[in-house]
Specification:
Layout (H helix, E strand, L loop, with lengths): L4 H51 L4 H10 L2 E3 L3 H5 L14 E7 L2 E7 L4 E6 L6 H25 L1 H13 L14 H46 L5 H27 L7 E5 H11 L4 H7 E2 L4 E7 H18 L5 E6 L2 E7 L7 H4 L18 H10 L4 E7 L2 E7 L2 E5 L3
Parallel strand pairs: 6-8
Antiparallel strand pairs: 1-4, 2-3, 3-4, 5-7, 7-12, 8-9, 9-11, 10-11
Helix pairs in contact: 1-4, 6-7, 8-10, 10-12
Length: 413
């Protein structure tokens, strides 16, 4: 919530309101004090002049004429006059009494004779009205800008939902926003990008389906032709070749589904023995070949995984181990909750991250490296299940470790 753009804008608005309120309060208070001081000085001058007029024999009519010229009019409101009853001089028998009375932020002039008394004040007592009006307008402007900004960025929530749908594989999204600002432009550009990506994906799917269809057709015809041959060693070998090619095409199809985020994982508990049997079937190794090439764990274990993806990863690890070993057998062992595939050989000349890039080729290697997809396939199929691949070279052995894949040991097997 703290990182939310809406939260930050709301905090900015609250700070602006508090700052504007504090500034307005102190500014108007200072202005009220200044006006009050000016009024007090002005009324002191009025009082001095009235006293001079009284001293030289001026009557009430002359004083009223003087005050009228100064734009001072007697106050006639009864509720205001009642507040000044206590300021009257009691038992006044003669003469004229003039007083300055200050109440709150206003200054008044009281004239009293034995017959009557009058209260004078400025005809425009609220000279701060303009300041209040300016402050009120400032608050309205800040609130209006806040509402305008919030209204402008609200479509970001819709845009975020549509982007999340697109990230989850949905292409039928609509995120066009009818705004002529940066957010509206961003939504239109994103919608155009979605359409282009969707078109490219459809083109890629069509291309891959066409390629696989064109490959499977001659393979099927070749396999049928081979089956028509008489039993012989060559027939079995050719059948194995066609089976291997067909398995490779199926692997490519799974890799394509995985890379395009269209593969749906189905993680369950399986016995490690079932995984290895499927792997050796994919490698076209019979029982005798397995005994001669590999060392398997004596006990069976349970793994929690997607069967298709894990067999594909383990198949590539064992295939690489058989291809690049310098001596001995490929060992498949269990260490704690890890599945380890190891073989004798020199350490890898490159880091695991470099080898896991697609179509990686070692230009200095004399051996056929294939398409350079082995470690890439292993790493991606494992990461899709939340697993990780590690590597170590210990005691002349290359050790590829699938971490935390073993769930429990099946001691009954």
């Amino acid at each position: 919530m703290i990182k939310s753009l809406f939260f930050k804008i709301s905090i900015l608005f609250v700070v602006s309101i508090i700052g504007l309120s504090a500034f307005s309060y102190y500014f108007i208070r200072e202005e009220i004090q200044r006006v009050s001081l000016e009024n007090q000085l002005k009324y002191n001058q009025f009082l001095a002049t009235i006293n001079q007029l009284v001293r030289f024999g001026g009557d009430m009519g002359l004083i009223e004429k003087y005050l009228k010229e100064l734009d001072l009019q007697p106050i006639t409101k009864r509720d205001i006059l009642e507040q000044f009853q206590s300021h009257l001089t009691q038992d006044l028998s003669s003469g004229i009494v003039a007083k300055i009375i200050k109440q709150e932020d206003s200054v008044y002039l009281l004239l009293q004779t034995p017959i009557e008394w009058k209260l004078y004040g400025d005809l425009h007592p609220d000279k701060l009205f303009n300041y209040y009006l300016i402050v009120f307008c400032a608050f309205l402007i800040v609130i209006f800008l806040f509402v305008l900004v919030i209204k402008s960025i609200l479509p970001l929530k819709t845009l975020r939902k549509e982007i999340r749908k697109f990230a989850n594989g949905q292409s039928d999204i609509s995120c066009k926003i009818d705004q002529n600002d940066e957010i509206g432009e961003l939504s239109r550009e994103f919608e155009n990008a979605v359409k282009k990506i969707d078109a490219l994906n459809q083109s890629r799917h069509l291309f891959l389906r066409t390629i696989m269809h064109e490959l499977k057709t001659p393979l099927t015809k070749g396999r049928i032709t081979v089956e028509m041959l008489k039993d012989s060693v060559y027939k079995e070998r050719l059948c194995n070749v066609f089976d291997r090619l067909n398995n490779l095409i199926n692997e490519f199809a799974k890799i394509e589904e995985l890379s395009s985020k269209n593969y749906h994982l189905n993680k369950q508990d399986y016995f490690l023995k079932e995984i290895l049997e499927r792997v050796f079937a994919m490698l076209l190794l019979d029982h005798a070949q397995i005994q001669n090439l590999c060392i398997l764990p004596r006990e069976d274990f349970v793994v929690h995984c997607d069967f298709e993806m894990l067999t594909l990863a383990v198949k590539n690890l064992i295939d690489n181990a058989l291809k690049y070993k310098t001596k001995g057998k490929v060992e498949i062992e269990i260490e704690d909750s890890h599945l380890v595939v190891s073989n004798f050989g020199p350490p890898l000349p490159y880091a695991l991250d470099a080898l896991s890039k697609p179509f990686f080729k070692d230009s200095h290697s004399s051996k056929d490296g294939g398409l350079g997809l082995g470690i890439y396939i292993v790493k991606n199929t494992l990461e899709s299940q939340g697993l990780s691949l590690r590597y170590a070279h210990i005691l002349e052995k290359n050790r590829f470790i699938i971490a935390d894949v073993i769930k429990i040991q099946n001691k009954g097997k």
